[in-house]
Amino acid sequence: MKILAIETSCDETSAAVVEDGWRMLSNAIASQVEIHARYGGVVPEIASRQHLLQITPVIQRAMEQAGTAWDGLDALAVTAGPGLAGALLVGVNAAKAIALARGLPLIGINHLEAHIYANWLSPKIGAEAERPEGPPFPALVLIVSGGHTDLVLMRGHGEYAILGRTRDDAAGEAFDKAARVLGLGYPGGPIVQKTAEAAAEPLPMPRAWIRGSHDFSFSGLKTHVLHVAQEVGLYPAPDGFKGSAEERGRLVANIAAGFQEAVVDVLVEKTVEAALAHGAHCVLLAGGVAANGPLRQRLTERSPVRVVIPRPVLCTDNAAMIASCGYHRLLRGERSGLELDVQPNWRMAA
Fold this sequence. Notes:
Blueprint (H helix, E strand, L loop, with lengths): L1 E6 L4 E8 L3 E9 L1 H5 L6 H23 L8 E7 L3 H18 L3 E5 H7 L21 E6 L4 E8 L2 E7 L5 H11 L6 H9 L22 H13 L13 H33 L4 E5 L6 H10 L3 E3 L3 H4 L3 H13 L19
């Protein structure tokens, strides 16, 4: 089964053709990171306009890379939520138009669930791809992205129990805010990780454990970074620091490293705790923050069971994961009609 998938939930326009839920024939992505970096975050109206400009060429590129004709497709899958309403509308309407014109089945996909299915994709594209061993159930899933931090018990395809969520900021959101306070730029995750690599002595940071719960909280940690930056003159003006540029660089690196260690520590320990408590046979990492090197390493070292982590390019938003999720839903006979609408606040069903 060959599925064309479209993803436009935030600031990546992506289209992919995936065969049987695991073999990527193409995965075209047009990023808007450089455009939004000047504003320190995603501007919804700009994102929507860029999706309008990119959607047709990205779909064409995905079809060409896959070497697939339109009559070789079996279905369409598209992100219907959660995400930015205007951005989602571009992808959903494009998918509905193609499905109507070609007479293809259509399935609307939850973006968070799709992140999980990045773990079912082969890391290689095309003929070189080998079918990966499917993760065993039940699986404990840690979804970490700019807008979500969730612990989910996956008992089977489409069978989920939400064990915990963030009570305030998501991990990715906290990375972005910490980077902004430290004057590092956007997006926060990659630049905080790179800055932290130069740290000689990571600054100790608080952790919110919320004992007796699988929930997370990163707001207090974010506020702590803000207060530290204010005390040493790094915020609100980057040039408020009285020391040399070298001293400033060392201090920023130590703060960034301490912040990253605190986030990774809480994510890993609570994931391991939940995996043991619920008898998980494996741990799956998903979402944009799953590309973080220290998180990947620490979780692999600490987990009592096998850890499955997608390639970094498959952790961030992409259409291949949408296609993989769509494949498993289509196998169960699920379909969306042409009345499919966007759901900006769509939560995964428990």
